[in-house]
Task: structure prediction
Amino acid sequence: MEKRECIILKNATLGYKKNQEDVIILKNIDLSFYAGDFIGIVGLNGIGKSTLLKSLCGLLPVLNGEILIDERNVNSLFLKDLAKKIAIVLTEKIGGFNLTAYDVVAAGQMPYTNSFNRLEKENLTIIESAIKICGIETHQYKLLNELSDGLFQKTIIAKALAQQTPIMLLDEPSAFLDYASKHDLFLLLKKLSAEENKCILVSSHDLDLLLKYCSKLLVISDNSIELIDNASAKANKAFLEIGGGFI
Result:
């Protein structure tokens, strides 16, 4: 499949506003991510992994430079257009506890509905497939506040799958999942990147999973942000420091 650039960061400075002042977390980043990439993002807590993911999908504005999604500035895209390009799984719990798991997954298809937001047969088939893939069929009509942390996480991942975007961003998606579910998730993500040519970026502290399944690692440290091949990870000083000597 064609290796096309789907995410480009040009001299990007990332962070957030506090009291009308810029709080810089990552600066002067020049990176490209391609269709078919499965990138694991590693770094210590507070280093900027979540900031990067939120900036890539437009949740945080770029402080300087630019981020391009399919050659268009991320902050210039309409929300509906952006939702057709990028699905994101965050660590924060969503509100709306009168919603069922099915309602949340179905929201992933909303960018593709008509002006009345009516779900057609094709939409319903995609929703049902995402629910089945994530193994939440028997829990799909439970309210969110009735779900365990693990089932809640699987529900959010199912929503991202239902969104059917060429880009998926996942922040600690394996949190709250049991050992087998973690491996199932990473195996699924690897399959999606390889067979559907999706560009997938995932942050995780499960370094063993990143090494096993991802094609490349984005290593974020105090002094650098570096994209490396998995094969060279154990020779990378910053990666070894993140692993605390246990890798």
Notes: The chain has two domains: 1-85+165-247, 92-164. The beta strands are 5-18, 21-34, 38-42, 64-69, 72-73, 86-89, 167-171, 199-203, 216-220, 225-229. Residues 71 and 237 are 33 Å apart (CA to CA). The chain is about 30% helix and 25% strand.
